[in-house]
Amino acid sequence: MEQKNSIPFTIVVGLLFIFLLAPVLLVFPMSFSGDSFMSFPPSSWSLRWYEALPQNRVLINALWTSLGLASVVTILSLVIAIPAAYAIARMDFFGREALFALFTAPLLLPSIVLGLAILIVFVGVGLISTFPGLVLAHLVVTLPYALRVLATALSTLPHQVEEAASSLGATPFTVFRRVTLPLMTPGIVAAAALAFLVSFDEVVISLFVVGPRITTLPVELYRYVDTRADPLVAAASVFLILGTVAVVLIVERTMGLNKAVGKS
Amino acid sequence: MNAAQAEPARSPFRLNGRQLVPILILPILLVNAISFLWPTFSLLRMSLNEPVAGGAIRETLTLQTYIDVMTDGFYLELVWNSIYLCSIITIVTLILSYPIALFIHRADPKWRSILTLMVISPLLVSAVVRTYGWVIILGDQGLINAFLMSTGLVERPARLIFNNFGVVVGLIEILMPYMILSLMAGFGRLDPRLEEAAQSLGAKRFTTLRRVTIPLTAPGIALGCLLVFVLSISSFVTPKLLGGGRVFLLATEIYDQSIVLLNWPLAASLSMLVLVIFGAALVVYSRIVKALD
Questions:
Q1: Is B177 helix (H, G, I), strand (E, B) or coil?
Q2: B137 with A118: Cβ contact below 8 A
Q3: Does the predicted interface ipTM exceed a cut of 0.90?
Q4: Engineered SS bond to B97: which of A62, A102, A128, B179, CB 3.0-4.6 Å?
Q5: Choosing among A6, A91, A203, which should be mutated to test the B contact, i.e. which has the most B CBs within 10 A?
Q6: Domain segments of chain A: what residues?
Q7: Cβ of A28 under 8 Å from any chain B Cβ?
Q8: What pLDDT is recorded for position B42?
Q9: Which domain range does residue B159 map to?
């Protein structure tokens, strides 16, 4: 009974998928180029750009900064967003919806506007070019995502188990620690992965906050592409893509994403 | 009913919690105040200051930078160019995304999840990497030019980046997943039996698409267009890297004015202008959605 996809239509859609995926896929052959400049297809193949990558101190230092930054931002996002999500999803209080709108509002602002706004304030309080400054700037964008995912996870949990625990004499904190928190593990894993990826990939806001003392990997890659044209960034991109795939696989293993998307 | 029975059991639980609300909310409120509310008000305040030569700023209350933006030919063209390019990007993104969304909607469930994953996966790759991928394709020594030169169609490499064309192509591809996902969300209303009925009554495939499929999926189209327009107006990395400093858009100008030229009041009023364009796009969107209902 379903409308079938005809063969010409399938070919058109196949071409559109090639358009959509080509830029990401071409990074892989480009990274094995033997040329000293960007040229595709490369005139020879080699591993020279993979050898050059660890030699680039700026990129390696930026990588460690970004990994540390994303880890701190992820942990803080969970610590800050879990209580807030609990209050918003589980409690009735005045201004609940207004507060939820306020906490997710940063996602409505373009990063370029948010970045400039943060620059103006952070310059005055000495947070520019500092680690805490970057953490605060990234939290603005990771917290709304974490809050949304966690609030959704909490609101789909059944109340009954928690109510049973509390009517059997458990204090609210014990109920939360022993019942609610374990039940919302999939939501926490998803929120953590999202916060980590958003922080690790964030460029535009970081551009306004980085300085001579501290810089992040996406900012340095952006600057590299802006000023030079060689295949080094392709080699770096391969690692970034593989890293992202690893994070997604971890989430899938913990949550059974495949089951949720494919079979339900 | 069920809810009424649960009420007495729930109330002590809720009462205990309510006193905790301020403590649970306080951390996120603090971060929001320090890195969102305060900066946003400072930005608005900054747009009312006066820039002084040499990057200094005089604190006043004036609309001078707004008047400058509205009367200077360069900025008027900048605003017009941004809206014009982003409208083109939105329309072409819709045209290229609609077949993919329709195909996925009609595919059988096993393929549907694989194809959806293929649509989502580019979203997880950094915009810098995807833009770099476009340099590989469109650059002077890129894939397309290699092909054109080998066929002898052109003698010198065609200029495909560092101009409007490169920026438009790159942004279309980068924003397509958002459009496809919005369209797919709107396709819920599309009952295959209606298309079936139209065809069994003698409508051609194209007529069915124009008179049945597209009108039914209009809410998804409106949402996708709003999203892509707003995201293209505010995107910075792709226009900057594929524009190579030769394509002037609102987002790149905000960056140049604030970081290179240190004219914060002007950068702030251009930011406010972006927010006004956002508001206008939202108004148009809600009018369209209302008209569709």
A1: helix
A2: no
A3: no
A4: B179
A5: A91
A6: 45-263
A7: no
A8: 94
A9: 74-292
